[in-house]
Design brief:
alpha+beta; 3 helices
Amino acid sequence: MPERRVTVGWAEGLHARAATVLVKAVKSTGVPMTIAKEGGTPVNAGSMLGLLALGSERGDTVVLAAEDDAALDRVAKLVQEGLDELPPA
C-alpha cells in the first residue's frame, strides 16, 4: 500500500480542530486511509477518536497510507502544511 511520511504542520498538532479538519478531508476523498506515528500502530485516519488517541504534536512524523496516490498526496499536503481544508485535486 502506498505511504507518505509527513511532519505534522498544525501548531496544535493533531488535536480537536486539526483532527476535525483531517477527518473531514479524509472522508471527502472517499478513500480508506490510515495514519500512524512513525513506528506506531496505524489507525483509521477518518476517525476522530483514532486521531486523538495518536497524540501527535507539531513536528511529529506520521505515516499516511491509502490505495489512491492522488488522495494520499492531497491529504499529506494538508497535514504537512497545516491547512484548514483539503487542497484541490
